[in-house]
């Protein structure tokens, strides 16, 4: 079965797929799902190593796990919306700002 059959949206998963493809290009490789908590020696060792690794400090570039582009875009949009509202609020507090704002409103309405 090929690893290229699915759609990959995660950078972490993509990196794993590429590493497995490279490994498989030079070696006979079988990737199999093993049910957890069933006493499989390799799986028990993987669980132990995962617990050990989770307790250590991260070494490597940030962010250490993928962030969806949609999440980044939504966060930026929310931040920009807040900045825009803050700017308009401050502008309305000044006499010139009131004149500018009122002039803008009257021009768009009339």
Automatic annotation (TrEMBL):
The UniProt keyword set, sorted, is:
Signal
Q: Name one Pfam family in it.
A: RNase_H
On whether DNA-binding is a keyword of this UniProt record, the answer is no
Any one GO molecular function term? RNA-DNA hybrid ribonuclease activity
RNase H type-1 domain boundaries: 1-55
Q: Which residues form the signal peptide?
A: 1-19
Q: Which residues cross the membrane?
A: none
Recorded protein name is RNase H type-1 domain-containing protein
Provenance organism:
Exocentrus adspersus
């Amino acid at each position: 079965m090929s690893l290229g059959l699915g759609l990959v949206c995660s950078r972490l998963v993509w990196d794993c797929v590429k590493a497995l493809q490279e490994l498989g290009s030079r070696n006979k490789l079988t990737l199999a799902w093993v049910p957890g908590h069933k006493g499989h020696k390799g799986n028990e060792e993987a669980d132990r190593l995962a617990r050990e690794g989770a307790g250590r400090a991260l070494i490597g570039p940030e962010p250490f796990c993928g962030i969806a582009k949609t999440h980044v875009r939504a966060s930026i949009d929310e931040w920009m919306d807040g900045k825009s509202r803050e700017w308009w609020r401050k502008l309305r507090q000044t006499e010139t700002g009131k004149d500018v704002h009122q002039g803008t409103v009257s021009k768009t309405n009339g």
